[in-house]
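Can you give me the bound-state structure? Components:
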Amino acid sequence: MPRPDQPDAEAIAQAVFTALADPTRRGILAELASHGPATATDLADRLPISRQAIAKHLRLLTDAGLVRAEAGERRRIRYRLQTGPVSVAQSFLAALTRDWDGPLDRLRDHLDQTQEE
Amino acid sequence: MPVPDRIERVLELRHPPEKVWAALTTPEGLGGWFGSSAEIDDLRPGGQARVRWEQDEESTLYIQVVEPPRLFAYTWAIEGLPPSDPRRTYVEFTLEPTATGTRVTVVETGFAQLPDELTAAYEGNVTGWRTKLPELAEYLDAAA
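Here's the bound-state model for the whole set.
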């Protein structure tokens, strides 16, 4: 559960889901996840998106805590994926993927069948 | 709206608690409805059970409470997180005798938990890769 000294899990999840709702931002995050830290120019070379659009999305992703800007070579800013917020959002999703209704139906069937045998 | 931290289901069964207990706490029982097969190393707090499904999926149940035929509880990995992740949800089966059989209440909690050292753990991984990859490069350079 969230504690006073930590950002609210709900707020973190909200930021992650908002960020992931956009396909361009998913593309940027996927690129950072698969190939590691990159500059906006690197990303513009690799993705079919203008450098301006990438810069705009990187600002939003930084605000959401999903990427972190850091000094790269020759003083160019590199962006690094931050996995913490994603794993908070993931634990929210886990409650929605947990299926108890199916197994409990099977428990009932299992007991009914073993009764009849 | 927040996603629930807690999932609760109540099931009325026309079978005595002892029989329901066996379905929850024996390999034959768990393998008969929960998974396609199951093993129980030790049915006591601190013991483990493994449940397998088809397609080689497997979950480890870390047994917490064994009070036959009333209360059985375990923790297990949160779906989507690696099995080694210290965050786990807590599952509790409560069995109550009724006039017609047993009322089973399943409660699973802990979905919305925040890890204690979220940032620290992440930084640990980053630092790990930052130091390990150059070390690998040095090792390979030295061996060349």
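A couple of observations. Residues 1-5 of chain A have pLDDT under 50 and may be disordered. Residues 92 and 98 of chain A are 11 Å apart (CA to CA).
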